[in-house]
Amino acid sequence: MNIGIIGSGNIARTVIKALEKLNDINISGIYSRNIENAGQLSRQFDIPFYTDSIEKLCQRKEIDVIYIATPHIFHFEHCKKALSYHKNVICEKPMTINAEDARELIHIAQTNQCFIGEAFWTCFNPVFQQIKAIKKNGLIGDFKSLISNIGGNGLATPRLVDRKLAGGALMDIGIYNINLMYEVFDTQFIKNTSTWIQGESGVDLQHNLVFTFDNQASASLSATIQAKTLNGAVISGTNGYILIDHVSECNKLEVYNNQRELIQVVAKEPNLTGYEYEFIKLKECLASGKLEFDEMPIERTLNILKLTDQIRQEWQLDFPSAST
After folding, report:
1. What is the CATH number of domain 2-121+275-304?
2. Is domain 126-267 classified as CATH 3.30.360.10?
3. In the chain, alpha helices (H)
4. Which end of the chain is flanked by fewer CB atoms within 10 Å, N or C?
């Protein structure tokens, strides 16, 4: 599988290093609007082609997949361009900044019979996937409560506080909490409320989301880009509880019974960053003819974006180049 990368920032570098560990997955080209950055990455990682033209990258016949690793606000434009060349696409989360744009991309991909998937790396991690098994086998009984917390002090990172780049806690890290909630309880909540703290630039610096479900369950989700925090979660059941060490990274999961005794530990492979899993699954999907991920189906992508659209509408937080 040959990959072309759009973007040359930190996430692109991290993924390039991760892919070096995998067999039969090659990076064949890279785009950056700054040709010097593209050239530097090409030389550092022995990438055979680099360019400052997205069109030239997408025209490369040897490239099977375009991976989008640019800031949120550019995802729609870059995905649409790659799909117009009938390229399979995997895009960093969030796929777009609103549900309407995501629906358009999905329609184009389906029309062109191209794969489209959100590179929501958490979903592919075996630690995260273990939640499904625990829920199915009733190891801690019925899930009744989720408390999830993620954040850090990111005020010095320009894109995180720039409303023009769709910055803020909700779209950058808050969606990790929402994704975990959907994994634990599905999407059918009956009530939700929120509070938020708005920064000078207009973005949300911090927020708290609370959801209730018709099975007498609840979720409390907190995210911040202005303070150090725990970055963990607890899923409480009728017969025990699960501790997750980090909401996005999911390095380790611990299961405790009613007596608060540790009964199971699941850990990520120590030699992997976690980004490898999504590309391994992508290769399997393309080999079998699948046009979306099982682990992160397009319906989940849309459900998350519909909720963030609703929350931002309640906050009256819009992004200048977005429709919602």
Report:
1. 3.40.50.720
2. yes
3. 10-19, 35-45, 54-58, 75-84, 99-111, 126-137, 169, 175-185, 276-288, 298-315
4. C
